[in-house]
Amino acid sequence: MKILNCKQQKEADAYTIEHEGILSINLMEKAAGMLTEAITRRWDKSHRIVVFAGPGNNGGDALAVARMLFLKNYQVEVFLFNVTGQLSEECLTNIRRLKESGFPNYTEVSSQFQAPKLTEHDIVVDGLFGSGLNRPLNGGFAAVVKFINASPATVVSIDVPSGLMGEDNSYNVRQNIIQADLTLSIQMPKLSFLFPENEEFTSHWELLDIGISREYIAQAETRYFITEEQEMRQLIRPRRTFAHKGNFGHGLLIAGSYGMGGAAVLAARACMRSGIGLLTVHSPICNHQLLQTIVPEAMVQDDVHERFFAEPTDLDNYQAMAIGPGLSQEEITAQAALDQVSNCFIPLVLDADALNIFSAYRSYLNRLPKHSILTPHVKELERLVGRCSNSFERLSKAKELAGELQVYIILKGAWTTVITPEGNCYFNPTGNPGMATGGSGDVLTGILLSLLAQGYTQEEACRLGVYIHGLAGDIACMRMGEISMTAGDIVNALPEAWKKLTTSK
Ligand SMILES: NC(=O)C1=CN([C@@H]2O[C@H](COP(=O)(O)OP(=O)(O)OC[C@H]3O[C@@H](n4cnc5c(N)ncnc54)[C@H](O)[C@@H]3O)[C@@H](O)[C@H]2O)[C@@H](O)CC1
Ligand SMILES: Nc1ncnc2c1ncn2[C@@H]1O[C@H](COP(=O)(O)OP(=O)(O)O)[C@@H](O)[C@H]1O
Ligand SMILES: [K+]
């Protein structure tokens, strides 16, 4: 699914109006009908609905919703903020329609706002500003936002929490943004919904498909996408009847050190559970027994060193390599890892300490083989690109780095983002906070190695890998709960995740 910017969303509205024979006011009526349905589905008539409408079409939506709720016998109050005396045409039409419906509780605010008393049983409908916001809120609007945020009422925002920009909020004023309990977003999600620091504004959001022109959306250019299940299903390669293990590649995993053998185990188990033909794990001698016992399916190649990865290994027999989980950053390991990676000629995944080593030896960064996959979490990324003050900046810097080094970056966390060398960003919808537990990232590395060894392209491996990893996380969460689930549970859920994605619905 494409994520378009607010300017494109406006264009999409206009295109739909022009090319699909629907009047602007009727498109708004359709949106309002869906908004009303979403509200009445959740809250019955025992709740008072207090509607705050702004001067533009977001306000127009809110007024139409107020009328529809009123006609369904809800108890509704409306405050329309008309500060400059300039209201959009659709907003004006909806004021008229509201009045014509016999609506009694309408207040137009031009200067002084007499705030109503809001209780925790009340529902606030926030229709102050939507995608037309072009600067941070201030003055009277900021005061209204602060009043709503301080109230105990439940807040439902139309399209966007008022005050929040759709993309970049670097220069926004956080206190002047509505903290919505629910956002009913029209047609397309906004990029800013996917950033962790905006969770307090948009923790829950839902999309309403009001029938914006498919044609417009198809031709609109964007760098931002949310991955969908159907696309992932189509990527998965069926196994031929006469297939043999040689068809599914031989992967090399360089992982583990003294005290961190578990990382190698988790990655190896995840790799085996994701369809690879053969796996060799290269690890210090101390992990030999552990790996042979817990992952008997994998071959183990001992390093020369008892406790640390110390000597690069030959890559001739492998189709892909992953390096990093539990590796440590010992000097001897750093030298071996830099050498191993710099001379790598097969598809490659770098995770955890392998990334930290490259952050410490920045001059080696340009020796990273082209199209390598880097899997940093936020801290690991910032070690590479420097401190960032917000997610928009972080994403921009990650895109720059991916372009500069011609690598794929998987920026991990909620809405894990796959960033391609061309600068496309694919946000992953699966996964949950239960995955914020030691070893989850090692599981992802194992999955990625498996997919690369099987011949999936880097982009396919990244997108499918993070999707299946999150899906297995969601299954693990259902089985074990968000609090108790561990990285091992994610591996144990991989079979069901793969089955879910390969069986027809
Ligand atoms: N037919 C349509 O065009 C449809 C529009 N829709 C709704 O329309 C919304 C977009 O409407 P608009 O483009 O009118 O935009 P808004 O309703 O977000 O408001 C734009 C107005 O606010 C002013 N403004 C911007 N930032 C301000 C600030 N910080 N302080 C004070 N004033 C400010 C702008 O100059 C403009 O006059 C969407 O979010 C959605 O809710 C939906 O109903 C779908 C159909
Ligand atoms: N809140 C969350 N929602 C979804 N996925 C998450 C969340 N927190 C963590 N994850 C996922 O869990 C994994 C954690 O990886 P990482 O931070 O490298 O952990 P570790 O180093 O312990 O293995 C990542 O794939 C990340 O996307
Ligand atoms: K709004």
Automatic annotation (TrEMBL):
Binding site for AMP: K412, G413, A414, W415, T416, G441
Alphabetized CDD domains for the sequence: YXKO-related
GO MF annotation terms: ADP-dependent NAD(P)H-hydrate dehydratase activity; ATP binding; metal ion binding; NAD(P)HX epimerase activity
Occurrences of domain YjeF C-terminal (ranges): 228-501
Binding note for cofactor: Binds 1 potassium ion per subunit.
Keywords from the named record: ATP-binding, Isomerase, Lyase, Metal-binding, Multifunctional enzyme, NAD, NADP, Nucleotide-binding, Potassium
Pfam families: Carb_kinase, YjeF_N
Residues given in the record as (6S)-NADPHX binding sites: 57-61, 130-136, 159, 263, 326, 377, 442
Annotated catalysed reactions: (6S)-NADHX + ADP = AMP + phosphate + NADH + H(+); (6S)-NADPHX + ADP = AMP + phosphate + NADPH + H(+); (6R)-NADHX = (6S)-NADHX; (6R)-NADPHX = (6S)-NADPHX
Domain of life: Bacteria
Any one Gene Ontology BP term: metabolite repair
Function, as annotated: Bifunctional enzyme that catalyzes the epimerization of the S- and R-forms of NAD(P)HX and the dehydration of the S-form of NAD(P)HX at the expense of ADP, which is converted to AMP. This allows the repair of both epimers of NAD(P)HX, a damaged form of NAD(P)H that is a result of enzymatic or heat-dependent hydration. Catalyzes the dehydration of the S-form of NAD(P)HX at the expense of ADP, which is converted to AMP. Together with NAD(P)HX epimerase, which catalyzes the epimerization of the S- and R-forms, the enzyme allows the repair of both epimers of NAD(P)HX, a damaged form of NAD(P)H that is a result of enzymatic or heat-dependent hydration.
Similarity section: Belongs to the NnrE/AIBP family. In the C-terminal section; belongs to the NnrD/CARKD family.
Record's subunit section: Homotetramer.
Protein name per its UniProtKB record: Bifunctional NAD(P)H-hydrate repair enzyme
Lineage: Bacteria, Pseudomonadati, Bacteroidota, Bacteroidia, Bacteroidales
